[in-house]
Design goal:
By secondary structure, the protein is of the alpha+beta class. It is built from 16 helices and eleven strands.
């Protein structure tokens, strides 16, 4: 064996192999099986565990709201395509499913089963005409030694429907022990889910009809006959009894009841359920601050940011890149699918970066790099480093008071300030302010400042800083 390996590695290759030598062995090892190696109880866990339901719904619904855009690559640039056929198809994927439902179910399947499948129905041009989501528990992958995946089988009531590999788009999570199927987070959360479920069942049984603690005890100290004892119980329960809680009866005063179980307080029941909740949510990537009743506003904001950056955005990137690789080639080359970047930005850090770039870049370069705005005629000059928030305005000089031009500038600044303050109270941004008298340089500075203004005080400070520089 050693001599064989020595001879094999003695000669170095001068070029890469055209095909990975292990692929055929992988396909041979994972031969066709009648049923996919998935956890068939995942759907029951989703229905029976409130925290699994909350976690998957939060991720699926949030991801379904993010727009997916198609771009054409031109070198390093991405050029947006208005109303690309794929975007039109995703808006109405099939007669029974909306865009939101398609992505909600796709992301939910990935979280629940670790796999999601789209079936593509084509038109006469060979492009997708409809997209149907397939249930992962019904899909079986058929390996192939050469093509890796020969196709898929979709089983319904014992009938197996063959699907070609070209017709199916397979999204999957990483599975360290499987070459074809993804791993669901429920597999890692199984212990916490079962513990939480058992605690919930124990709590329900504790307060069940047969395990309720008596509301009170009627202790008859003097000895009475059985007939009188039954009569007293019957009259008491007839006048004061109820179905919710029971009353215990003792006679003679010599009988004593002793509780041998552990109470909710002894078991620290609430803390135990919180620990199970936190573990389940952490496995799914849901910060506890999003659901905790004790979270402050600052904690909730940080939790939402962590959820978007570390949980939701990677999941969206997985879907977008799979669509780029396997679906967009139907429409041509040099196309890429990307979600709108919903990751929150640090407004103060971005403003500091723009301030640092002022002495180094021209106005047109600032517009293109930070605001994705087209160039303007006056934008080839650099911004004055002495006024990081206000470039040279080239306003007409004033001698014995404000000129009419300067006065109109101040009036329009006041109008714009009122407009910006009123827009803070609206749910939607609405139309932009129409600039008529302000120089382009000043309008650019005000617009840049308002991008980072989130409350009334910050809006007022933008206009106060501009007025101070006039």
């Amino acid at each position: 064996m050693f001599n064989w390996l020595t001879d094999f590695f003695h000669t170095r290759r001068d070029k890469l192999r055209p095909r990975a030598p292990h692929i055929e062995r992988v396909a041979a090892q994972n031969r066709y099986a009648l049923n996919p190696p998935l956890d068939i109880h995942s759907a029951r866990v989703y229905e029976g565990s409130p925290w699994v339901y909350v976690a998957i719904n939060r991720i699926a619904e949030a991801g379904a709201l993010v727009p997916l855009k198609v771009y054409r690559l031109a070198g390093e640039k991405r050029i947006g395509i208005e109303n690309h056929p794929l975007e039109t198809l995703l808006n109405a994927p099939n007669p029974l499913t909306s865009r939101f439902e398609l992505f909600e179910q796709t992301i939910g399947s990935l979280e629940l089963q670790g796999n999601a499948y789209w079936f593509l129905a084509g038109d006469e041009r060979g492009q997708p005409r409809e997209i149907w989501l397939l249930r992962p528990d019904r899909v079986t992958i058929v390996p192939h030694e050469r093509r890796i995946v020969a196709g898929y089988l979709y089983e319904i009531n014992g009938e197996r429907i063959p699907l070609d590999a070209l017709e199916v788009l397979h999204f999957r999570r990483w599975h360290p022990a499987d070459d074809f199927y993804g791993l669901s987070p429920i597999a890692a959360a199984r212990g916490a889910v079962l513990s939480d479920r058992h605690m919930a069942d124990w709590n329900r049984n504790t307060f069940g009809q047969d395990n309720g603690v008596p509301a009170g005890i009627v202790n008859i100290k003097d000895f009475i006959s059985d007939t009188d004892f039954e009569r007293v119980k019957r009259e008491w329960r007839g006048n004061y009894g109820g179905a919710a809680r029971r009353t215990a009866f003792l006679r003679g005063g010599a009988m004593e009841w002793q509780h041998i179980g552990l109470s909710h307080s002894d078991l620290d029941f609430l803390q135990g359920r919180r620990a199970q909740r936190d573990e389940i949510l952490n496995i799914f990537g849901i910060p506890v601050g999003l659901v905790s009743e004790n979270a402050t506003e600052a904690n909730a904001v940080v939790a939402e940011r962590q959820f978007i950056e570390r949980t939701l955005w990677p999941k969206l990137a997985r879907i977008a890149q799979k669509i780029t690789q396997d679906l967009l080639p139907f429409y041509g080359a040099d196309l890429v699918a990307e979600y709108d970047d919903i990751r929150p930005t640090d407004a103060q850090a971005r403003l500091a970066e723009i301030r640092t770039a002022y002495p180094l870049l021209s106005i047109n370069e600032l517009r293109a790099q930070y605001f994705q705005l087209p160039p303007v005629e006056w934008g080839d000059v650099a911004v004055s480093p002495h006024s990081p928030l206000n470039p040279a305005l080239n306003l007409p000089p004033t001698h014995q008071g404000e000129t009419s031009v300067a006065k109109s500038v101040l009036d329009e600044l006041a109008q714009w300030e009122r407009f910006a303050l009123n827009r803070l109270e609206r749910a939607e941004p609405g139309r932009p302010f129409e600039v008529t008298s302000l120089p382009d340089e000043l309008a650019f500075e005000v617009s840049a400042g308002l991008l980072f203004a989130r409350d009334r005080e910050s809006v007022k400070s933008v206009f106060a800083g501009v007025r101070a520089g006039l």
